[in-house]
Design a protein that fits this description.
Number of strands: 12
Shape: elongated
Radius of gyration: 19 Å
Strand content: 15-25%
Distance between the termini: 34 Å
Number of helices: 6
């Protein structure tokens, strides 16, 4: 990652996907990845710049499926658009092992993965539409890298900021990332104060009214 990547990633420290999603709603920015779920209930959030990969049905002769990973930088999140296909995988144990060696942050797939036990044992974060054992080799091939892709109906461009955790995945357009992070931190601070007030004996209604809870995620508030 370059210095700007590092700065943007650091701005999301302490945030989770619900907080980032709320901030994006407030700012009128789409980016929630519908149907993309974690392999495990990860106790941490992954944040990193997107390295996008677009797969298509293979030609004759078939093209390559995984060589792109040599170009992924440490700390990046691999974001793979396989058109939501559930009949063949685009990620398995060798890719998981190599991604861990290269210190890649995570993998997000609009499609499925396999060799789940390896990913869980290595604590390598993967977010997908499911899992299936059939290989994608000779069924799909890489058409492009670092071009816009769709993940769970969300548009992802190269170097957008990906935030992923046990709740799912959100993608923040790079040009709005600093604004989203600042807004999310503000929302989180307000919600923390609400929790403090109910812990001290106030009703939820009182705490919400005092701190403007119902406007926190409202667009333009």
């Amino acid at each position: 990652m370059n210095s700007e990547d590092v700065k943007l990633v650091a701005s999301f420290a302490g945030l989770d996907t619900p907080g980032v999603s709320d901030a994006m709603d407030r700012l009128g920015i789409p980016g929630q990845c519908l149907g993309i779920a974690p392999l495990a209930n990860y106790p941490f959030a992954v944040v990193g710049p997107a390295f996008t990969v677009k797969y298509v049905s293979c030609g004759n002769p078939p093209g390559t499926v995984g060589d792109f990973i040599d170009d992924v930088a440490e700390g990046d999140v691999v974001v793979i658009d396989n058109d939501g296909r559930l009949d063949c995988t685009v990620w398995g144990d060798i890719m998981t092992q190599y991604a861990g060696i290269r210190k890649i942050a995570a993998t997000v797939i609009d499609g499925v993965c396999r060799d789940v036990s390896k990913a869980l044992a290595d604590n390598y974060p993967i977010f997908t539409k499911g899992r299936y054992m059939r290989t994608g080799k000779d069924r799909v091939e890489v058409a492009a890298v670092n071009t816009p892709v769709s993940i769970g109906a969300a548009r992802v461009c190269a170097r957008d900021i990906v935030v992923a955790d046990a709740n799912g995945v959100v993608v923040v357009p790079r040009a709005r990332a600093a604004e989203v992070a600042e807004t999310a931190h503000g929302i989180e601070a307000t919600e923390a104060r609400i929790r403090e007030q109910i812990a001290s004996g106030k009703t939820l209604g009182e705490a919400r009214a005092a701190l403007g809870y119902h406007n926190l995620q409202r667009k333009g508030a």
